[in-house]
Amino acid sequence: MNNQTTTSTPEVKLFDGSIKLGGFRNRGEKGDFLSFVPQRSYQEGEEVKYSSSFSGDDLLKLARLCQKAYDEHKAFQSSEYLKRQSTEV
Question: pTM to 2 decimals?
Answer without folding.
Answer: 0.78
